[in-house]
């Protein structure tokens, strides 16, 4: 299916249409592989997980990502994309190898676990027989690329002919295809002109469109990613810290955020108060960055990131307080409908999800929690098999004493407060994502609470007194 490299081009892969391999076909890698093939490149996706490779080869995306399934089917038909577990074949095939394996948080510390990254680079280096570029995309601590360069040069039979670059990825889950095909910027961390030319060839379609490009050294490219994610996390925690102040003063954090957002220097994005950030990136990147800064002797420079993390966690406790209040001061035996489990809408990812964590905390206090997420029930069940899961919104809220909105799926925003009200045991709701029309709920007779919003006086709430249905 793929074209064959002629001996001349094998000596120095052409900077025109390099053949691409992608190691690690999770969220990041699978999307990158599919999109690069969609842009016209020949691409080989590689993973150690046989099942993942089988599913992708047969045209099925093993996770939920809007638009990716259609794109995969489309490019498989062109014959430009294939998947394999065979690393030798990948090394023979690729001119530019993208390493997209995970860097999860270590089990026993805040540091990033680099086992998979190191393994991938080592496996490629030890098999290399011709000049190629190894490009790290995974988020890593600053200094990793330099260390890996030394390792790769030592392990590779062709020595320094095997080069290394870092090319951080900024895609958001839920928008992965669009973010990959239309990135807002490209960052190349390179150590040579040759490496830069290879990356320019790979990203030629975007560069021709005028996508901003920053060419930097390896360490800067590594730092860009964690600095960006830390900034986003800081912005979210900033408004959530303001929500705490609002709660103490009776001010309204939504009006506050709105007023701040009109200042162009501040802007309204990532200023949405609520249950805070989660997912496979922001929380662990923040922690790994603070950990690495301490190792580098500049821990104080980013010490505030610990506070950002703490503010984020405190929102979950505060949310549980609100649910407990609405349940009459005690969660034992209270039936709580937990709407959402994914860390954000349009995703089935429950890694470090505030939603699922809150559901777990409510259950630990004795609540009878029924979780419903339009896409993440399966992953959530795997993580917390002891919680109850409902197959629909209606089933989840039926006979609920309190409804907890945890992930802002459109389905929840569209729901009719009167129809939901007819199903619950009591019309009480806590909106953890500021996603619902508070007035519409109040008009329909609900007691409505949200983080950082003033509460209307409802007198002493007891479970029996508020059971209106
Ligand atoms: C993030 C970065 O945006 C992306 O550039 C990087 O490559 C990977 O990490 P992602 O994890 O997909 O992407 O999620 P994102 O859309 O950034 O949201 C992160 C979390 O912040 C979610 O839990 C979301 O609910 C929360 N959030 C976001 C808020 O609480 N308030 C906001 O205003 C925005």
Explain what you see:
This protein has two domains: 197 residues, Rossmann fold (3-Layer(aba) Sandwich), CATH 3.40.50; 242 residues, NAD(P)-binding Rossmann-like Domain (Rossmann fold, 3-Layer(aba) Sandwich). The longest helix has 32 residues. The chain contains 21 helices and 14 strands. The chain is an alpha/beta fold and 469 residues long. The strands form three sheets. A six-stranded parallel beta sheet has the order 3-2-1-4-5-6, with helices on both faces. Strands 11-10-9-12-13-14 form a six-stranded parallel beta sheet. A two-stranded parallel ribbon has the order 7-8. Strand 1, helix 2 and strand 2 form a beta-alpha-beta unit. Bound molecules: uridine-5'-diphosphate-xylopyranose. Uridine-5'-diphosphate-xylopyranose (UDX) binds next to helix 11. Uridine-5'-diphosphate-xylopyranose binds next to helix 11.
List the helices and strands and how they pair.
Blueprint (H helix, E strand, L loop, with lengths): L6 H5 L8 E4 L3 H12 L4 E4 L3 H8 L10 H11 L2 E4 L2 H7 L2 E4 L15 H13 L4 E5 L7 H12 L6 E5 L9 H6 L4 E4 L3 H10 L1 H5 L4 E4 L1 H32 L3 H9 L20 H14 L8 H23 L8 E5 L14 H11 L3 E5 L4 H7 L4 E2 L3 H5 L4 E4 L4 H5 L2 H7 L4 E4 L6 H6 L3 E4 L12 H4 L3
Parallel strand pairs: 1-2, 1-4, 2-3, 4-5, 5-6, 7-8, 9-10, 9-12, 10-11, 12-13, 13-14
Bound molecules: uridine-5'-diphosphate-xylopyranose.
Question: Helical proportion?
Answer: 40-55%
CATH architecture of the largest domain: 3-Layer(aba) Sandwich
Tertiary shape: globular
What separation lies between the terminal Cα atoms?
64 Å
CATH C-level class of the largest domain is Alpha Beta
Percentage of residues in DSSP E strands: 5-15%
Ligand names: uridine-5'-diphosphate-xylopyranose
Name the assembly state. single chain
CATH topology of the largest domain: Rossmann fold
Q: CATH homologous superfamily name of the largest domain? A: NAD(P)-binding Rossmann-like Domain
Class by helix and strand content?
A: alpha/beta
């Amino acid at each position: 299916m793929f074209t064959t490299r002629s001996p001349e081009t094998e000596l120095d892969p052409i900077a025109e249409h390099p053949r691409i391999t992608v190691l690690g076909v999770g969220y990041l890698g699978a999307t990158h592989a599919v999109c690069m093939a969609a842009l016209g490149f020949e691409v080989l996706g590689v993973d150690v997980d046989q099942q993942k490779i089988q599913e992708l080869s047969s045209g099925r995306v093993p996770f939920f990502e809007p638009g990716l399934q259609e794109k995969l089917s489309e490019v498989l038909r062109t014959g430009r994309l294939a998947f394999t577990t065979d690393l030798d074949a990948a090394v023979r095939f690729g001119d530019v190898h993208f390493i997209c394996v995970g860097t999860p948080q270590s089990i026993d510390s805040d540091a990033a676990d680099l086992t998979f990254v190191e393994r991938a680079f080592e496996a490629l280096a030890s098999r290399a027989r011709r000049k190629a570029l190894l490009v790290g995309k995974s988020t890593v601590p600053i200094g990793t690329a330099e260390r890996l360069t030394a390792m790769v040069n030592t392990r590779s039979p062709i020595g320094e002919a095997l080069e290394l670059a870092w090319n951080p990825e900024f895609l958001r889950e839920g928008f992965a295809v669009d973010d990959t095909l239309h990135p807002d910027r490209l960052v190349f961390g390179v150590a040579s002109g040759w490496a830069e030319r290879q990356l320019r060839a790979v990203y030629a379609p975007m560069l021709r469109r005028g996508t901003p490009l920053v060419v930097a050294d390896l360490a800067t490219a590594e730092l860009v990613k964690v600095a960006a994610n830390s900034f986003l996390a800081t912005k979210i925690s900033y408004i959530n810290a303001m929500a705490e102040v609002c709660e103490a003063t009776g001010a309204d954090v939504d009006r506050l955020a709105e007023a701040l957002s009109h200042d162009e220097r501040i802007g309204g994005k990532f200023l949405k108060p609520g249950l805070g950030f989660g997912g496979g990136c922001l929380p662990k990147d923040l922690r790994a960055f603070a950990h690495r800064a301490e190792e580098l002797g500049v821990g104080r420079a980013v010490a505030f990131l610990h506070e950002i993390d703490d503010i984020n966690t405190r929102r979950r406790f505060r949310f549980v307080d609100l649910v407990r209040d609405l349940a009459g001061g005690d969660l034992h035996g209270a039936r709580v409908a937990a709407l959402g489990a994914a860390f954000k809408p349009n995703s089935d990812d429950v890694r470090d999800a505030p939603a699922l964590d809150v559901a777990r905390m409510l259950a630990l206090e004795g609540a009878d929690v029924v979780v419903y997420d339009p896409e993440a029930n399966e992953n959530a069940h795997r993580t917390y098999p002891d919680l109850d899961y409902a197959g629909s919104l209606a089933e989840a809220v039926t006979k609920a004493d309190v409804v907890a909105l945890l992930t802002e799926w459109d389905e929840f925003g569209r729901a009719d407060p009167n129809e939901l009200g007819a199903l619950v045991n009591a019309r009480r709701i806590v909106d953890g994502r500021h996603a619902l029309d508070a007035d519409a709920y109040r008009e329909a007779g609900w007691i409505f609470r949200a983080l950082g919003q003033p509460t209307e006086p409802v007198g002493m709430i007891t479970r029996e007194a508020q059971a209106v249905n």
